[in-house]
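[step 3/7] fold_predict: job queued, chain A
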Amino acid sequence: MARVLIPIADGFEELEAVTVIDLLRRAQIEVDVAGLTEGPVRGSRHTVVVPDISLDAALHRDYDMVVLPGGLPGATNLDNDPRIHGLLQDMSAAGKYTAAICAAPKVLAHAGVLAGKRATSFPGILDEAGLADITIEQTAVVQDGKVITSRGPGTAMDFALALIEALAGDTARGSVEDGLKRPPHHAATAA
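[step 4/7] structure written:
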């Protein structure tokens, strides 16, 4: 079974974090939610999440993927933690998946994981100076090799389904997506 680490920091985007956690667990993927410090973590909308594990403890485990939720200042707090950069670099060097949504792709960029890659993020996040080696796309989810990025809260479900497909295949993705009973994208809304 695949194992995923989702580090969260104060100011994380709840919709992104919880959607990814929920959908990965529906796919029978083992998920560890790690706080940068011990104790509960408060999201950008003041939702409090109790992590499964501390980041220090998680760093002694083996993961197939690390996923960074966005939100501000959550993504900035992740970006300012050297342990996160080291983890991302180690995962990338080992040929494992790194993924980020919304403002968090900047953490991948600053760790050097996006160099020469195609990626997406919340508009403007990857337009910073010094990140010219990234091809920025405007689609909901972009996968370039073992790096998966997404735009923001509105794309969280598509992002989570892409993560499931990468780790467990399209049958697992289809099974989870079918259980969600999402209407077809082109469906008209009721009047």
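[step 5/7] annotate
The chain has seven helices and eleven strands.
The radius of gyration is 16 Å.
exit 0
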